[in-house]
Amino acid sequence: MDYEIKTKGKFNFIEEGEGEPLILLHGLFGALSNFKDLIEHFRVSYKVVVPLLPLFDLNILDTTVGGLSKFVHKFIEMQGYTNAHLLGNSLGGHVALVYLLKHPETSIKSLTLTGSSGLFENGMGETYPKRGDYEYIRKKTELTFYDPAMATKELVDEVFEIVGNRLKVIKVIALAKSAIRHNLGEELSTLTLPVCLIWGQNDTITPPMVGEEFHRLLPNSELHFIDKCGHAPMMEVPGEFNKVLEDFLHRLK
C-alpha cells in the first residue's frame, strides 16, 4: 500500500476514491497498514479518509481521548465533510464516540466500531517492560490477534519502536489512562445514529461482552461477531469484515 499522505495545515491524511466520506480512525498502536484491505475495497465507491491521529504530537495535557476528539472535529470541519461514515478501531472507536457525544449537531451518517475502547479494555498491562525487551513486546502484540502469526516482524518492530522511545511511552500511558478515566456509559443512549458493531469472537483486549454492552447502550445498533478473530477484525479477517460493513453501508443509501 503506497498512498499519498496529504498535508493541510497541521493535518496529515490519506484520501482515496470518490463518494460519501468513510473516515477511519486507528488505535493506540495503529498504523495506516491496519486499514490497507479496507481502503482498497471501499475506495471504489466511497471517499476513504484516514487522518493520522497525533498520538505523540500533542502536548501532554491534550494527550487524551478528549484532545484527540477535538483534533477529529477540527479535521472534519476543515474538510467540510458531510454525510460521512465514521469507523474506529480500539482507541479510534472511543475517540469517535466522544466526538459524536460532544458534537450532536454533526452530519455524521453512521458509526462503525470494532474492538472499541470506551467501556472496558485490557491494555498492554499496568507496567511497561524495560526498554529492549523485544520478546515481551512480540507476545503482547500477538495477543491482539486470534492467530499469533498475524503479529509479523514488521508489526512488532513498529510497536517496539514506540515503546523504545521514552517520550512516546509517556504519551501511550497518558492516553491509556485517559481512556480508562473517560469510560462511557448510559450517555451512549443519546447517540441515535445507525451503529454497526463488528467484534472478534476471540478478542481478549475488548472481549465479546464489551460488544454486547455497546449493543445494549446504543439504541440504533447492530452487533456482528466474527469467529476465530481477535481485536483487529479489519486486519485479521478483511474479507468477512468488509462484507459486514458493505452490507451495513448499503442499507443506508
General description of the model:
- The chain is 39% helix and 17% strand.
- The protein is built from nine helices and eight strands.
- The protein has helices at 36-42, 65-79, 91-102, 134-142, 153-163, 166-181, 208-217, 233-236, 238-251, and strands at 6-8, 11-16, 21-25, 47-51, 84-89, 108-114, 195-200, 221-226.
- A hairpin with a 2-residue loop joins strand 1 (6-8) and strand 2.
- Helix 1 crosses helix 9 (238-251), helix 2 (65-79) crosses helix 3 (91-102) and helix 4 packs across helix 5.
- It is globular and about 50 Å long.
- It comes from Chitinophaga costaii.
- Residues 21-136 form the AB hydrolase-1 domain.
- InterPro entries: AB_hydrolase_1, AB_hydrolase_fold, AB_hydrolase_sf.
- This is Pimeloyl-ACP methyl ester carboxylesterase.
